[in-house]
């Protein structure tokens, strides 16, 4: 039985911090694999700046030399209004039925789940395991203890809290802005992705 982390984001584009974060979590939590899961472009709360094909191409280029990283387009192919993280994790638990699945997220998302803002929040917490990264100004233990949804389903193994050394912030938004304004964010993302963006004139 292996341990697999599901790391979702827009990856528009993927950055060096995405890769560093995934590798750090893989090492600290002793994961066998990390699955990079680009979100659907049909989500109403997000607006992608590139086609799905470009996001996936850059992701695959970025991780091609790391056999512990996997790119999966599952959410890209779903209707965003019909799917939630609960359904996504159910899919991966079925696909990797002999492994333990962990959902990787920031503490800000933990608070939203605790407030019931995510689809099927109660069952999501009751039936799954989470690796939660610290965010400035958020007390993760307090967030869990103050939410009935979180505390009543915490069996001591539901949440793996990582509260040290993951504070690096280089956003995809910052990189897109640099490209659009004629900047040069070359060393903030993988070199192959930097070249791909220039070759396809993305984010201009």
TrEMBL record:
InterPro entries the record matches: Cyt_trans-like (IPR004821), NadD/NMNAT (IPR005248), Rossmann-like_a/b/a_fold (IPR014729)
Keywords: ATP-binding, NAD, Nucleotide-binding, Nucleotidyltransferase, Pyridine nucleotide biosynthesis, Transferase
Biochemical pathway: Cofactor biosynthesis; NAD(+) biosynthesis; deamido-NAD(+) from nicotinate D-ribonucleotide: step 1/1
Pfam families: CTP_transf_like
Gene Ontology terms, MF aspect: ATP binding; nicotinate-nucleotide adenylyltransferase activity
One record GO biological process: NAD+ biosynthetic process
Record has Cell inner membrane as a keyword: no
Catalytic activity as recorded in UniProt: nicotinate beta-D-ribonucleotide + ATP + H(+) = deamido-NAD(+) + diphosphate
Domain (Cytidyltransferase-like): residue spans on this chain: 6-177
EC number: 2.7.7.18
Family, per entry: Belongs to the NadD family.
Function, in words: Catalyzes the reversible adenylation of nicotinate mononucleotide (NaMN) to nicotinic acid adenine dinucleotide (NaAD).
Protein name: Probable nicotinate-nucleotide adenylyltransferase
Provenance organism: Metabacillus litoralis
